[in-house]
Amino acid sequence: MFKLLPDTPSERVTVLVDDVTVQVPPGYTAAAAMLMNTDEATRTTATSNQPRAPYCMMGVCFECLMEINGVPNQQGCLVIVSEGMRINRQQGKREINV
Amino acid sequence: MADFDAIVVGGGLVGTAVAYGLARRGRKAVVLDEGDIAHRASRGNFGLVWVQSKGFGVPEYQRWTRRSSEDWGAFSAQLQKETGIASGHERPGGVTLCLTEEELDKRRRMMAQLHLEAGETNFEYEILDHAQTKKLIPAIGPQVVGASYTRYDGAANPLYTLRALHAALLQHGGRYVPNARVEHINAAPNQFSITINGTTYAAPRLVLGAGLGNKALGEKVGLNVPVRPVRGQIIVTERVAPVLPMPTLMIRQTVEGTIMIGESREDAGWIDTTTPEIVHTLAERAVKTFPFLRDVRIVRTWAALRVMAPDGLPIYEQSRDFPGAFVCTCHSGVTLAAAHALHYAQYVIDGALPPELARFSTRRFDVQAAA
Ligand SMILES: Cc1cc2nc3c(=O)[nH]c(=O)nc-3n(C[C@H](O)[C@H](O)[C@H](O)COP(=O)(O)OP(=O)(O)OC[C@H]3O[C@@H](n4cnc5c(N)ncnc54)[C@H](O)[C@@H]3O)c2cc1C
Ligand code: FES
What we know:
heterodimer, A: seven-stranded mixed beta sheet, 7 strands, 7% helix, B: 3 domains, six-stranded mixed beta sheet, 8 helices
């Protein structure tokens, strides 16, 4: 769905989006990496399990919640990718182990 | 000129509950409410419908609170039926968690005293040790030495409750007038009128339900309402799967999964902003109590001002100079919302407060303090 800007640098960072290896330009956010690689919802909501995806891309709407390196409910649009980062969809509420 | 059966000043939980109660009984009620710049405890509170620890040394308060908590289920069901809005009320019982033996001892004595004072209304409670508490709420940490438990406690979503009250008020033919700060009241016995933006609202009954605004408004109709602001700060976390099966005095999980951590009690005048020190203290105690909170994300903090009488009790009174003018104010407006809607409204219609509310009269402020 999305195209890269023409002046995007040619280097790539390797991340795992839902366990699939993908290459994204450095400086990308986890939300952008996810969007590059899916046309589907990137999370389901905590109370009514509705499908959602990143929206504002600037930290305001909380629609981009995802699990990053095992930590759930992170705002993917505020996290810059790094080599080997594991990015997973957030399904409903975060589970707590006590 | 717009004629009503009652004018209610204040559109928070207290004023709207009374107005809704009036409208439900077929009375024409209008709510005059200041704008969003007003201090509005109803939009910033913790949402407990709480009984344990209320009314220590004042059995009348314990009884009134218990009654409201008993009524809350039906009150909430009725609101939902009328408006489709669920208040999120639950009454699974509640605990006050203690982190030291001293805290637990104090708690034990307090609950025993409340039990004594309850007399025939029988205040049932349990003091739990660590293992018993852990059975109820497995998420507690090793530092929790015990807890007090009563089955009377619960919680609701105060914002949905307020929204439901407003919707139900309108449905029963009531009026709500926003941006209507009342400064002048034309008062004569059982005859009141207030002019806002060119419209005059007149009624034989006036109810002051304006929270911290009641102090200044009371003076206009011969009511002494010495309420002052007491700040409370609250931390709110991300939504997580159900982990707290019942509310505790300081920490509860909402129906939606959010964990709320509250609430401080500070004399900070009219300053209603958060402070890092208090938020830190709240968070520290929360993590000691529930270690899993250590890595749960905080999404918001806020502060709001409680509406506090010098002795912490509600203030219920009818003016002697201007019969027909009532004040209704308290520091636990969520807990008492059911009592205000179901009972206080009727007293306003009757034109008399019953003996069981005499303890909350403003007469108690007439006593001079010893030097
Ligand atoms: C941090 C915190 C935690 C709390 N936790 C709990 C809890 O767990 N359980 C519980 O039961 N209670 C709790 N409370 C208390 C509860 O929130 C209040 O008792 C309740 O909201 C009071 O409602 P109110 O309608 O009297 O006041 P408010 O919500 O302050 O409403 C007063 C209304 O009057 C209006 N007003 C004021 N002056 C005028 C004027 N001159 N003319 C017209 N309108 C005017 C304002 O616009 C406002 O809408 C808490 C409070 C705080 C601050
Ligand atoms: S997309 Fe809106 S907060 Fe991340």
